């Protein structure tokens, strides 16, 4: 008995000795005995966020505490978005210290509880380092962390979710429910519908199946009803269908068909009645759609062969289609309305670390997170510009140390995180998917003198991405030795190791060009070698480590010039100033880039001055033509070619566990064949997913052709600049007016319109919402701004063209027989004003007609008896608007003195409108951020956080 006990004691001691010690945390940025807060200059600021168009206050909190180095914009966004507690109450957070402490202390506490640190000293170092990096904008967690961690709310830390749906009614209804729960929490979700039987297959009862597209209608309606996180934006979602699904053509053409209906009905003047089938079918607008193509299909496309569509129940081919024709339909639909995007199924699953646990079938709404069904991913992104020294050297060693700390924190978060559904919680805890990424790549490339679309630029981007993922997996392997590999690793060990070797082999193939890329590549190669060695012994803690997300709101929090992998939007930016006001500035990366290229201070000053005046570098004094490409941007005089975006994605994709959130911008003149070639090259270059957007392809987007042509003609006509100043024509004390009561989507309001005595509209007042409410204030201010514009000579038809078809809630049926359906209150108001104050000819150009006019048109065109006798020629001259002086109007519209965002500033320089929605919070034009849109003014996004 004594021997047995002694033997057991020896075995226990041996096991304890064999257990790996916890990681030793090292200081990178901080000094022992000194807290990071002590080295920062703090100041008190007043955050008053207004709608720049009418001056109404959207948010106000005074006396908040932030570092002096933080911009006004970052301060405003963090205060309004991330501070917790009721505004105006004592419990409301008032300092960045409180926000960072709330999050960091939660992470440190969980790290202690779950054995991540050797002792209190390591825990303190971890706390200080994490605090320093957040305080100095070195990185940021994704928005759900700032919303939820350390609060009484569920500790949801993930922004990206993938769901699953099977071919049963119970599963389909559960899909609606789970999506709703995720949308309610402010996040987005994606799923693959390919398990659902097609409309060409039979049910067990003998009837015909509805097909996935029909069930999309219910999910779309649900998403359209539930506002994400209680905000004004719609829920973000992705729906995917495999290319071999029998309903693939219907799926491909769904959104394009909706756009066609809207366009045709609006332009032809048809009444979109409540009982009409067209109104019921104008749907599918709340999701991004993507087609999953296989290598088999792409080879058939290359060879010009046919391709089999397979039944969902038996897997047998039930129809054969021409692969080229099908791919052409995909390209045509994307050309028409930007949907569907494309996902390359075999490429995705070839890089899958856990194939024994299931295939990767879908992605999150922005397409960067791709892993198992019913799973989630929490994100964090580094600010690359924080690692660029004054000497132009990228500090790869410090970057690697920062990645180690961040990936450790991200893994700790899974230990305490809450999830919206139990299946998602179970999968995420078993596979521990992480998504580290970066922002400010475009700024980094420009600052180091690299063109975005260049071999050197791609080499630097590739080596940084490889280093980030290599270090992440190395730390993941170290964590596995300390607290264990992820639960699903043992079953997937062979596959996971194979994918790690693929990453390392891709790293070996990077061609470097000297300088930053060579130095970074050396550190990355070492990281991959160590990751393979440690992982072979311990396994890995995380099934995936990295993605490239849009970094919308958190990019603004870090004061980044560019988001995610995107290039710079334009060379001139809109900047808010302390104490209010704003100014136009040339990007700070421009002078840095010029110095990196060897220009003298005097030359830099002259070039920057030229850019500030013209918005581009073409013909800038002293700038060599071979350097023009360094300053190419996403938009502007010299915009990056579509394939330039694709090549950058291809350079970084082999070094990412997931994919890349990015939309390839294409000019309005791009052809269907161009889109087809982009989608084909995406497959050839090894991307996992790709989406395109062709300028002005969406109905209701601002048209740019007229202004663009006009600007070109004016530029060619003369170098002489004649300035015309608008003159305000005030209304007399006594003037005619009318009041219209209306209802839009259940919201009641009143429109009061005042006219000049000679019958020209001169003012409007809109009553909507309760007196004293934010909505009522916004509408009052909006009315004043429109009224002043009218009095300065801006034609009513200009406003109508901008605001009709604008989409936001409330929307739907109205009580106006002439405008039965409105996509928003503004859509209704300006169509009503057009009907009352514009001539028939002008309304005809805008596609706006009365009910009687539409009836007469139908009678004239189709020979049916009209319901009323209408004299169309009489109507054409019945209403005439007062024409302002043409030159004064052009000056007022073409050369506005104030803009509210960088996108609007870019419009001013381009002389044409940019395809971007208006922010529903502050009213400014948003800017692209990955597959979403981002508002620079308030941090709102149009997609998942």
Automatic annotation (TrEMBL):
CDD domains: RNR_II_dimer (cd02888)
Catalysis performed (reactions): a 2'-deoxyribonucleoside 5'-diphosphate + [thioredoxin]-disulfide + H2O = a ribonucleoside 5'-diphosphate + [thioredoxin]-dithiol
Organism lineage string: Bacteria, Bacillati, Actinomycetota, Actinomycetes, Pseudonocardiales
Protein name per the record: Vitamin B12-dependent ribonucleotide reductase
Function, as annotated: Catalyzes the reduction of ribonucleotides to deoxyribonucleotides. May function to provide a pool of deoxyribonucleotide precursors for DNA repair during oxygen limitation and/or for immediate growth after restoration of oxygen.
Organism this protein belongs to: Lentzea cavernae
EC numbers on record: 1.17.4.1
Keywords: Cobalamin, Cobalt, Disulfide bond, DNA synthesis, Nucleotide-binding, Oxidoreductase
Record field: transmembrane: none
UniProt family annotation: Belongs to the ribonucleoside diphosphate reductase class-2 family.
Residues covered by the Ribonucleotide reductase large subunit C-terminal domain: 158-693
Residue span, Ribonucleotide reductase class II vitamin B12-dependent N-terminal domain: 47-137
The protein's required cofactors: adenosylcob(III)alamin
Domain (TSCPD): residue spans on this chain: 732-836
Main EC class the enzyme belongs to: oxidoreductase
Pfam family, one: Ribonuc_red_2_N
Lineage top rank: taxon: Bacteria
